[in-house]
Amino acid sequence: MSAAHVRxxxxxxxKPRLAAPKVSVPRKIAKRLxxxxxxxxxxxxxxxxxxxxxxxxxxxxxxxxxxKAERAAGSAVGRAGFTVSGYQIVGIAxxxxxxxxxxxxxxxxxxxxxxxxxxxxxxxxxxAAIRSRLLNFGWVKDARVSRRLPDTLVIDIVExxxxxLWQNQSGLxxxxxxxxxxxxxxxxxxxxxxxxIGAGANGHERQLREMIASVPTLAPQLTSATWVGGRRWDLNxxxxxxxxxxxxxxxxxxxxxxxxxxxxxSGLLGRGIVRFDMRDPKQMVVRLPRAPGEPVVAAPPEG
Length: 303
Hints:
By secondary structure, the chain is an alpha/beta fold. The protein has 3 domains: 27-62, no CATH class; 82-159, membrane protein fhac (Ubiquitin-like (UB roll), Roll), CATH 3.10.20; 164-287, Cell division protein FtsQ/DivIB (Rossmann fold, 3-Layer(aba) Sandwich), CATH 3.40.50.11690. It has 7 helices and 12 strands. It has a 9-stranded mixed sheet, with no helix packed on it. α4 runs antiparallel to α5.
C-alpha cells in the first residue's frame, strides 16, 4: 500500500462519520410544492431538526436543567471565595435603615440556601430583586445595587425630599412634591412644613406650592390649606382667617393675586375677620365674627 493511500500515523481505516438524518418528502406531495424534490427534502430536514431542538429545549426546561446549572456554577464561584461577606448602604438621611437591612439580608439568606452554603455566592445574589423591593418604600426615589468584588454589595439609595405634611383619615403623613407618601408623622414631632388637609390634597401639592410662591407677601403667613370637595382650596392663615379660592388653577391664582393686592393696600389679614370668600370673581364676600347673643346667619354652601 503506497503513501498515497496510507498517511503517516494513520491506521489505514477511515473514521466513521455520523450521518445527519435524511428526511425526504413523498413525491406526490413534492409535486404540489413550488420547489423541486431536492429543495423540498432539504426544507423538510431543516423543519425536522428545528422540531428536535424544540423538544430538547422543552425537556431541559421541564427537568430544570438551566436553573440547576446556574446554581452549580454559583456554588462553584462561592467555593472559589467570591461570596458576600457584607454590604454597604449609602445615601440614607431620613428613612429607617432597618427596612433596607431586612431586604438585603433576606436576599442573602435566599442565595445562601440555594447554594447550600453558609454565605451567599456573588453570582446567585439577585441585585435586580433587591432594587425592585427597595423601590416599594415611599422614601426611595431610586436605588442602585452593585457588586464590589470580592465580597461586598453596595446599596446606593436616592431619597425623596419631604415637601409637606398631609392630614387625612389615615392620620398625619409626610409627602414629597409629587404627593408620594413617605412616612407617618407623630403630631408632637411635626416638621416645619406646609400642612395639607383633606382627601386627595397630596396630589395637588405642587400646584399649591407654585400658587403660594406667586404671592410672597402671603406665603410666610400660611399655616395650612384644605382641599375642599376634591375641587378647590381653603387657605388658613396665622391670624385665623380663611381665604376660600375658586375652582380651577388659573381662577385660583387670579383670586389669590387679587387678595394679596388688597391685603397689601388695606391690611385685610389680622383684623378679626373670619372668612374671605373669593369664589365669585365679581365680588369678595366677607364673614365677620359673631357677637355674643347675635343670631346665627346661614353661611353660603361649601364646595
